[in-house]
Write a structure and sequence with these properties.
Layout (H helix, E strand, L loop, with lengths): L13 H5 L15 E7 L5 E7 L1 H4 L4 E6 L24 E2 L5 E7 L2 H10 L1 E6 L6 H4 L15 E6 L6 H6 L2 E13 L7 E7 L2 E6 L4 H12 L6 E4 L15 H13 L3 E4 L2 H7 L2 E13 L5 E13 L9 H7 L9 E10 L13 H19 L3 H8 L8 E2 L6 E2 L4 H10 L3 H13 L5 E10 L7 H5 L8 E7 L5 E5 L8 H12 L8 E4 L17 H27 L7 E4 L2 E4 L6 E3 H7 L15 E6 L8 E10 L6 E11 L6 H20 L30 E5 L17 H18 L13 H10 L42
Parallel strand pairs: 1-12, 10-11, 14-15, 20-21, 27-28
Antiparallel strand pairs: 1-5, 2-4, 2-6, 3-5, 7-15, 8-13, 9-10, 9-12, 13-14, 16-17, 18-26, 19-20, 19-25, 22-23, 23-24, 26-27
Helix pairs in contact: 9-10, 10-11, 10-19, 15-16, 16-17, 18-19
């Protein structure tokens, strides 16, 4: 019988979602529901001197307006101890978009109008919109009770590797800026709270309903069985929906006070300033290497922008960057430290990859810079540094960070089998000589990242109950199966993947007979949630093992019914027979029905068919891959077009090739967007300049190439399924593949690096300067072109006598 694991199966979830029958938070209509709207700060940093709510309270349809003063004792959201964020600003606002009052009305339109009628008086305070401003001498602390804006200062090694760097035959340095990004899930944040006589129910767009349930129960002094959190269909998350938001507390408290369900759904503009942002990391790197390009030592200093309130998932992101900073290379010594810094901006949290894409970008840029310094091919330098297959599992210098099995050279070889590298190199040289043609560049990314987040000692550090995951498998008396899992998907296809795993583990029953339930803390036992590419490597084994327990009981009952030894029973999908005895068989439906008839079962057997399993992984898993990007650069405008993108990934066991392809392509799309398009921007006063999708450039279909995806399956020994995870690999691999390609195309002009996003203006400036352009952002001077150079056609001239920052060119 063919295995379902590895089969290309169309997703079970899609018919409902594609025909408008999904059930998202805003689709849930409870009787008597009222609507909440925020009054948000329009100042980045100011002292509140007064809030006049009278006009809003008097509007028809308004049930109430509340400020922090009206809600004494309201719990704060979780964060680093001592830095917890209040749900509503009381005396000071610290970023544009911070809530300072809430309105509840009979519908969302009245609530929005009333929120606009609230008058806020304030005195402006100095704005620290960049990490440079926040770390300057004399900068006042943004977070109350802190002595400075450096909220974490963490050396990760005992020494600075200066001796090793000094002894290296070659030494170089570079500064890397991973820009601030917005998650932009297709569904913004939303929740619906109903506090009635049975307790609190919260429907919310979250990635981890059980941890939210546990926190709300603690905050409100409720037992967990009286606190229910439901994540229905969730339209994307990308890590940002793993954070805890003030509306979870506020809607619950206001529902308790009003004795009515309270709903909040943010607008897209609210989402772009209130949902946690990602990345926003500055890295200073020094590297020592030999004549063959072998990296002998590296020193890394990271500054992480935390935003105004350090998020529990955000402030420690540099830890993961440091752990993965060596990539798939054997580097004898890495010295590292990081600072996390508060600024008057939206808080930073997890975003697809969460610290690991920053590490992959760093080390892959290092490899290309080393190759450039030595005049060697970047692939030669990578091969000189690869960890070899016979060295796996490979213990890095970081305690507990042990890479599982992979084959990095083979991944690169497979990539080159699907890429005419030598032909492309010749074409690139020909184009350089032909001024009528666009420049051509080829960029590579050979990476390893961290997935399968799970070992409890690690996950406890991020505030989770544990690192295990749970599955309960119940077979009904008609042979249908319900699998209840502790993960909660937001687009990953868990209902399909877990049904495939269960179908195999139950002996090959049709997956159409299997239903997967998730996201409801009242119907699913316990769970940790979906983040860190952990669903398949951590929950998958739990589904496999709980299904296997049910199957073993099926075999026992079938043996009893057929009056045979259990070892002689063979299963063929939905039938059981005695080996070597034709014509003796019972159906799965017969066996399942018998399980609920104790007088027909073996003596002492428990009634029914149900088993639970909690799988605790022994280690993280480490997906890896080799990606290549081919670009052409327009000489006249600096516009970058991607001609080819080829991805080879090792995620261990591939559960479903169709969903695996979707995961890779979606991640690569986000990585390309980071490389070329996306950046959250603020002006010098801390005002966001990308608070709509007119200004924040998410990719469209014309921006993305056809992606060629391939897999090399090297199973991990760290879990029984052999799977490593795949959800974040594309976003981890793609940015540096694109940037390396563009820098390669411009390398003959002396361009060594360009900060993301590589907008046409930046690229054109770099070409005309003969050097890399710095990013145009608040606090950073705009790049200057050579005096004799003219802007490309279609670009405006800067105003005579004006400042560079007075004019902008968008991609």
């Amino acid at each position: 019988m063919a295995s379902m694991v590895g089969a290309a199966v169309v997703r079970k979830e899609d018919p409902a979602l594609l025909t408008g029958r999904g059930r998202f938070v805003d689709d849930i209509q409870l009787p008597g529901t009222v609507h909440m709207a925020y009054v948000r700060s329009v100042q980045a940093h100011a002292r509140i001197t007064g809030i006049d709510t009278s006009a809003a309270r008097d509007m028809p349809g308004v049930l109430g307006v509340w400020t922090a003063a009206d809600l004494p004792g309201l719990p704060h959201t979780r964060s680093i101890p001592g830095m917890e964020r209040p749900c509503l600003a009381s005396d000071t606002v610290r970023f544009v978009g911070e809530p300072l009052a809430v309105v509840v009305a009979v519908d969302r339109y009245v609530a929005a109008d009333a929120a606009a009628a609230v008058v806020v008086d304030h005195d402006a305070l100095p704005v620290l919109a960049t990490i440079e401003q926040a770390m300057a001498d004399g900068a006042a602390p943004i977070v109350p009770g802190q002595r400075s804006n450096v909220v974490m200062d963490q050396p990760m090694t005992e020494d600075d590797a200066e001796a090793e760097l000094a002894a290296a035959p070659h030494r170089t340095s570079l500064r890397i800026r991973n820009q601030r990004l917005a998650a932009v899930p297709i569904e913004p944040n939303g929740c619906l709270a109903n506090w009635d006589t049975t307790g609190l129910t919260l429907y919310a767009t979250v990635q981890a309903p059980h941890p939210i349930r546990n926190e709300l129960a603690t905050m409100f002094g409720l037992p967990q069985h009286e606190t229910r959190v439901v994540a229905p269909d969730v339209g994307g998350g990308f890590g940002a929906k793993a954070s805890f938001y003030p509306e979870f507390i506020l809607t619950a408290e206001l529902s308790r006070r009003l004795c009515r369900p309270v709903k909040y759904v943010e607008t897209r503009s609210e989402n772009l300033v209130s949902m946690t942002h990602g990345r926003a990391q500055l890295q200073d790197v020094e590297v020592g290497f030999d004549d063959d390009g072998r990296v002998l030592a590296m020193r890394l200093a990271i500054v992480q922008d935390c935003g105004a309130w350090p998020d529990a998932t955000g402030a420690g992101l540099p830890t993961l960057t440091v752990f993965m900073s060596g990539g798939c290379y054997k580097i004898a010594k890495i010295a590292a430290s990081f600072k996390s810094v508060a600024t008057n901006t939206t808080p930073i949290g997890a975003y697809r990859g969460a610290g690991r894409p920053e590490a992959a970008f760093l080390i892959e840029r290092v490899m290309d810079v080393v190759a450039d310094e030595l005049g060697r091919d970047p692939l030669e330098v990578r091969r000189a540094n690869f960890i070899q297959p016979d060295e796996m599992p490979f213990a890095t210098q970081w305690p507990g960070i042990v890479y599982d099995e992979s084959d990095f050279p083979r991944l690169l070889d497979t990539l080159l089998e699907n890429l005419d590298y030598e032909v492309l190199r010749r074409e690139a040289e020909e184009r350089r000589a032909d001024l009528s043609r666009p420049l051509l560049g080829i960029g590579f990314s050979t990476f390893v990242e961290m997935g399968g987040f799970g070992p409890t000692p690690l996950f406890e550090q991020f505030g989770y109950l544990g690192g295990w995951e749970s599955s309960t498998v119940r077979m009904n008396s008609d042979g249908t199966v319900v699998v209840s899992v502790g993960t909660s998907p937001h687009g990953q296809g868990h209902e399909t993947a877990f049904a495939q795993i269960a179908a195999d583990a139950l002996g090959g029953i049709p997956m159409e007979r299997i239903t997967v339930r998730h996201g409801d803390t009242h119907t699913v036992q316990e769970g940790i949630g979906t983040m860190g590419s952990r669903a398949i490597p951590v929950c998958g084994p739990a589904v496999m093992r709980s299904s296997d327990k049910v199957r073993r009981k099926l075999l026992q009952i079938a043996a009893h019914m057929l009056e045979a030894n259990e070892d002689d029973i063979v299963q063929d999908g939905e039938s059981f027979a005695v080996r070597g005895t034709p014509g003796t068989e019972v159906t799965l439906a017969d066996v399942a029905l018998t399980a609920y008839k104790p007088h027909k079962c073996p003596d002492g057997m428990e009634i029914g068919l149900q088993a639970m399993d909690c799988y605790e992984p022994t280690n993280l898993s480490y997906p890896s891959g080799a990606h290549a990007c081919v670009v052409e650069v327009d000489r006249a405008t600096g516009k970058v077009d991607i001609l080819r993108y080829v991805a080879v990934d090792d995620c261990g066991t591939v559960i479903n090739p169709l969903t695996a392809r979707g995961q890779v392509e979606g991640g690569v799309a986000q990585g390309i967007a980071q490389a070329l398009l996306e950046e959250v921007g603020y002006d010098p006063e801390g005002q966001p300049v990308t608070s709509s999708l007119i200004d924040y450039a998410v990719p469209g279909a014309p921006d993305l190439p056809d992606m060629e995806t391939h897999h090399v399956e090297v199973k991990t020994s760290f879990n029984p399924l052999g799977a490593k995870g795949l959800g974040e690999s594309g976003a981890t691999a793609a940015p540096q593949a694109v940037v390396n390609a563009v820098v390669d195309a411009l390398s003959h002009l002396g361009v060594r690096t360009i900060d993301m996003p590589l907008t046409p203006f930046k690229v054109w400036t770099a070409m005309n300067d003969g050097r890399a352009a710095d990013g145009v952002s608040p606090g950073v001077a705009a790049p200057q072109a050579d005096a004799g150079a003219s802007p490309p056609e279609g670009m405006p001239e800067p105003p005579e006598g004006g400042r560079d920052e007075d004019w902008k060119v968008t991609p």
